[in-house]
Write a structure and sequence with these properties.
Structural class: mainly beta
Number of strands: 12
Number of helices: 2
CATH superfamily of the largest domain: RimM
Radius of gyration: 19 Å
CATH architecture of the largest domain: Beta Barrel
CATH topology of the largest domain: Elongation Factor Tu (Ef-tu), domain 3
Distance between the termini: 36 Å
Number of domains: 2
Strand content: 35-45%
Length: about 180
Protein backbone atom coordinates (compact mmCIF):
# COMPACT_ATOMS: atom_id res chain seq x y z
CA UNK A 1 0.00 0.00 0.00
CA UNK A 2 1.33 3.44 -0.81
CA UNK A 3 2.03 5.88 1.99
CA UNK A 4 -0.95 8.00 0.99
CA UNK A 5 -3.80 6.69 -1.14
CA UNK A 6 -6.06 9.43 -2.42
CA UNK A 7 -8.78 7.23 -3.91
CA UNK A 8 -12.08 8.86 -3.06
CA UNK A 9 -10.24 12.00 -2.00
CA UNK A 10 -10.26 14.36 -5.01
CA UNK A 11 -8.55 17.25 -3.26
CA UNK A 12 -5.60 15.16 -2.13
CA UNK A 13 -6.53 15.19 1.55
CA UNK A 14 -5.98 12.08 3.64
CA UNK A 15 -8.36 9.16 3.40
CA UNK A 16 -9.86 8.35 6.80
CA UNK A 17 -11.03 4.86 7.69
CA UNK A 18 -13.80 4.46 10.25
CA UNK A 19 -12.83 2.07 13.05
CA UNK A 20 -15.58 2.75 15.55
CA UNK A 21 -18.58 4.76 16.69
CA UNK A 22 -18.62 6.36 20.15
CA UNK A 23 -21.85 5.88 22.06
CA UNK A 24 -21.81 7.25 25.61
CA UNK A 25 -19.73 7.53 28.75
CA UNK A 26 -19.30 4.38 30.82
CA UNK A 27 -18.44 4.60 34.52
CA UNK A 28 -16.70 7.51 36.24
CA UNK A 29 -13.19 7.27 34.72
CA UNK A 30 -13.98 8.90 31.37
CA UNK A 31 -14.35 5.70 29.35
CA UNK A 32 -16.62 5.65 26.31
CA UNK A 33 -18.52 2.73 24.82
CA UNK A 34 -17.41 2.29 21.21
CA UNK A 35 -19.08 0.10 18.59
CA UNK A 36 -16.41 -1.60 16.48
CA UNK A 37 -16.24 -1.05 12.73
CA UNK A 38 -12.93 -2.75 12.05
CA UNK A 39 -11.69 -6.27 11.51
CA UNK A 40 -8.61 -5.42 13.59
CA UNK A 41 -9.72 -4.47 17.14
CA UNK A 42 -6.30 -5.56 18.42
CA UNK A 43 -4.82 -2.46 16.73
CA UNK A 44 -6.92 -0.17 18.93
CA UNK A 45 -4.82 0.38 22.03
CA UNK A 46 -3.27 2.87 24.42
CA UNK A 47 -1.21 5.45 22.55
CA UNK A 48 -3.01 5.03 19.20
CA UNK A 49 -3.63 8.28 17.33
CA UNK A 50 -7.27 8.60 16.25
CA UNK A 51 -9.41 11.23 14.56
CA UNK A 52 -12.87 11.97 15.92
CA UNK A 53 -15.94 13.43 14.26
CA UNK A 54 -16.61 15.05 10.90
CA UNK A 55 -13.72 17.49 11.38
CA UNK A 56 -11.31 14.60 12.13
CA UNK A 57 -9.91 16.15 15.31
CA UNK A 58 -6.72 14.35 16.36
CA UNK A 59 -6.58 12.67 19.78
CA UNK A 60 -4.57 9.92 21.45
CA UNK A 61 -6.18 6.96 23.13
CA UNK A 62 -5.40 6.61 26.81
CA UNK A 63 -6.66 3.06 26.93
CA UNK A 64 -8.83 0.53 25.15
CA UNK A 65 -10.33 -2.79 26.19
CA UNK A 66 -12.90 -5.19 24.83
CA UNK A 67 -16.34 -4.88 26.37
CA UNK A 68 -19.50 -6.79 25.35
CA UNK A 69 -19.74 -6.49 21.52
CA UNK A 70 -17.48 -3.43 21.36
CA UNK A 71 -14.79 -1.65 23.33
CA UNK A 72 -14.34 0.79 26.15
CA UNK A 73 -11.90 3.52 25.16
CA UNK A 74 -10.35 6.49 26.94
CA UNK A 75 -9.12 9.64 25.27
CA UNK A 76 -6.06 11.23 26.88
CA UNK A 77 -6.84 14.46 28.68
CA UNK A 78 -10.53 13.62 29.16
CA UNK A 79 -10.99 11.75 32.42
CA UNK A 80 -14.57 12.31 33.54
CA UNK A 81 -17.98 11.42 32.10
CA UNK A 82 -18.67 15.15 31.70
CA UNK A 83 -15.42 15.72 29.78
CA UNK A 84 -16.06 12.87 27.33
CA UNK A 85 -19.68 13.87 26.68
CA UNK A 86 -18.48 15.96 23.70
CA UNK A 87 -17.48 12.75 21.90
CA UNK A 88 -20.87 11.07 22.15
CA UNK A 89 -22.37 9.78 18.87
CA UNK A 90 -19.29 10.49 16.76
CA UNK A 91 -17.22 8.32 14.44
CA UNK A 92 -13.61 7.40 15.23
CA UNK A 93 -11.17 7.23 12.32
CA UNK A 94 -7.56 6.44 11.50
CA UNK A 95 -5.66 7.73 8.48
CA UNK A 96 -5.21 5.22 5.70
CA UNK A 97 -1.53 6.17 5.61
CA UNK A 98 -1.20 5.07 9.25
CA UNK A 99 -2.54 1.52 8.90
CA UNK A 100 -0.35 -1.49 8.15
CA UNK A 101 -0.46 -3.09 4.73
CA UNK A 102 -2.70 -6.13 4.39
CA UNK A 103 -1.43 -9.54 3.26
CA UNK A 104 -1.00 -10.08 -0.48
CA UNK A 105 -4.38 -10.46 -2.18
CA UNK A 106 -6.28 -8.58 0.55
CA UNK A 107 -7.44 -4.98 0.15
CA UNK A 108 -9.04 -2.30 2.27
CA UNK A 109 -12.54 -1.48 1.08
CA UNK A 110 -11.70 2.12 0.21
CA UNK A 111 -9.06 0.83 -2.24
CA UNK A 112 -11.75 -1.00 -4.25
CA UNK A 113 -13.94 2.05 -4.86
CA UNK A 114 -13.22 3.32 -8.38
CA UNK A 115 -12.09 -0.03 -9.79
CA UNK A 116 -13.29 -0.77 -13.32
CA UNK A 117 -15.41 -3.93 -13.36
CA UNK A 118 -15.70 -6.31 -16.31
CA UNK A 119 -17.37 -9.68 -16.65
CA UNK A 120 -15.50 -12.87 -17.53
CA UNK A 121 -16.34 -12.25 -21.21
CA UNK A 122 -14.42 -8.94 -21.17
CA UNK A 123 -17.56 -6.72 -21.20
CA UNK A 124 -17.23 -3.51 -19.18
CA UNK A 125 -19.92 -3.33 -16.49
CA UNK A 126 -18.91 -0.01 -14.90
CA UNK A 127 -17.00 0.93 -11.80
CA UNK A 128 -17.39 0.26 -8.11
CA UNK A 129 -18.99 3.35 -6.58
CA UNK A 130 -19.94 2.00 -3.15
CA UNK A 131 -19.57 -1.02 -0.91
CA UNK A 132 -22.56 -2.07 1.17
CA UNK A 133 -21.82 -4.06 4.30
CA UNK A 134 -24.34 -6.81 4.98
CA UNK A 135 -24.37 -9.50 7.60
CA UNK A 136 -23.23 -12.27 5.26
CA UNK A 137 -20.90 -10.57 2.77
CA UNK A 138 -20.19 -7.17 1.27
CA UNK A 139 -22.03 -6.07 -1.86
CA UNK A 140 -20.31 -3.98 -4.55
CA UNK A 141 -22.44 -1.30 -6.20
CA UNK A 142 -21.25 -1.07 -9.83
CA UNK A 143 -22.47 1.87 -11.92
CA UNK A 144 -22.05 2.18 -15.71
CA UNK A 145 -21.73 5.38 -17.78
CA UNK A 146 -25.52 5.68 -18.17
CA UNK A 147 -26.05 5.53 -14.39
CA UNK A 148 -27.43 1.99 -14.31
CA UNK A 149 -26.34 0.09 -11.23
CA UNK A 150 -25.88 -3.58 -10.53
CA UNK A 151 -25.21 -5.15 -7.16
CA UNK A 152 -22.50 -7.79 -6.98
CA UNK A 153 -22.01 -9.96 -3.90
CA UNK A 154 -18.36 -10.02 -2.84
CA UNK A 155 -18.07 -13.81 -2.87
CA UNK A 156 -15.52 -16.08 -4.56
CA UNK A 157 -18.09 -17.37 -7.09
CA UNK A 158 -18.55 -13.78 -8.36
CA UNK A 159 -15.21 -11.98 -7.83
CA UNK A 160 -12.70 -13.82 -10.01
CA UNK A 161 -9.76 -11.43 -9.99
CA UNK A 162 -8.78 -8.10 -8.48
CA UNK A 163 -5.93 -6.39 -10.30
CA UNK A 164 -4.92 -3.35 -8.24
CA UNK A 165 -2.09 -2.14 -10.52
CA UNK A 166 -4.56 -2.01 -13.45
CA UNK A 167 -7.44 -0.77 -11.22
CA UNK A 168 -9.62 -3.59 -12.60
CA UNK A 169 -11.84 -6.34 -11.22
CA UNK A 170 -13.03 -9.35 -13.22
CA UNK A 171 -16.33 -10.90 -12.14
CA UNK A 172 -18.62 -13.77 -13.08
CA UNK A 173 -22.27 -12.78 -13.27
CA UNK A 174 -24.55 -15.26 -11.58
CA UNK A 175 -27.96 -15.83 -13.14
CA UNK A 176 -30.35 -13.10 -12.06
CA UNK A 177 -27.72 -10.44 -11.30
CA UNK A 178 -28.26 -8.46 -14.50
CA UNK A 179 -31.40 -7.73 -16.51
Amino acid sequence: MSTENNAGSPNGESVYLAIGFLRRAHGVQGELIMDLHTDFPDRIKDGRKVYVGERHEAFTLGGARLHANGMLVRIRGFETPEAVARFRNQWVYVKSSEVPALPVGKHYKYELVGLSVEDDGGNLLGEIVEIIETGANDVYVVRNSTGKEILLPAIPDVVLETNMPEKRMKVHLLDGLVD
